[in-house]
Amino acid sequence: MKEVKCTWCKTKDKKEEMKVEEKGTGKFNKNGTEKMVRKYFHKECEIEFIKDKEMKKKELVELDLLYSFLRDLHKIQFLDGRMMEKIQDLRNGTIKIDGRKINKYKQGVTYSLMLETYQYIQQKIDFILNSNQFKEKWNEFSYIFGTMVRNINTVQEAENRRVITEKINRNIKVDKETVEIEVKKTQKKDDLDISDFL
Ligand SMILES: [Zn+2]
């Protein structure tokens, strides 16, 4: 029986048990049929794969927003490699031990939280920009980036509190709905009871 490799977990399994994702290549076989690329997945792995794809899409949008914000803030045309490295290291949660970088992947601060923090400290940033003369854009970027990093926890805590409050509110709403549905059910039952009498 033919085995194929799962695109997500890279283990092989029986072809019949795998889900397949087919895409046309725009190239054709001699007999006129289109050449296809096929990706095979375990059922659960396909779910993970789609989730990952969506997360990456969302990340791109968030990074784009952060990028434009920083370009405006520092009045620069683009963020250079050094600047992007700082952002990526914070996103990934890269740490330095004895001057050596330990690379991680997407375990750090999200782009949206960085942006939120920058916005949160806008007044501080204005003050910094007004009261300092930076030698280069890089110095200005690093200085403000450092200030942002030091304020992440404050914004994160506020965000956590907001999420908790939202959850509580949602639960209250759900409870109310449940009660309403139950009330309706009881009413229906009463109706029935009456008709039974008639
Ligand atoms: Zn798999």
Describe the structure.
Strand 3 and strand 4 (about 35-40) form a beta hairpin. The chain is flat and about 70 Å long. The strands form 3 sheets. A two-stranded antiparallel ribbon has the order 1-2. The chain has a domain at about 75-175. It is built from 5 helices and 6 strands. With about 200 residues, the chain is α+β, with helices and mostly antiparallel strands. The protein is about 65% helix and about 15% strand. Zinc ion binds next to loops.
Reported for the largest beta sheet, the result is:
2 strands, antiparallel
Secondary structure class reads alpha+beta
Cα-to-Cα separation, first versus last residue: 68 Å
Order of helices and strands: EEEEHHEEHHH
- Percent strand equals 15-25%
List bound small molecules. Answer: zinc ion
Low-confidence stretches: 194-198
Average pLDDT reading: 89
Number of helices: 5
Radius of gyration: 27 Å
Number of strands: 6
- For the largest sheet, list the strands in their spatial order: 1-2
Shape: flat
Question: Helix fraction?
Answer: 55-70%
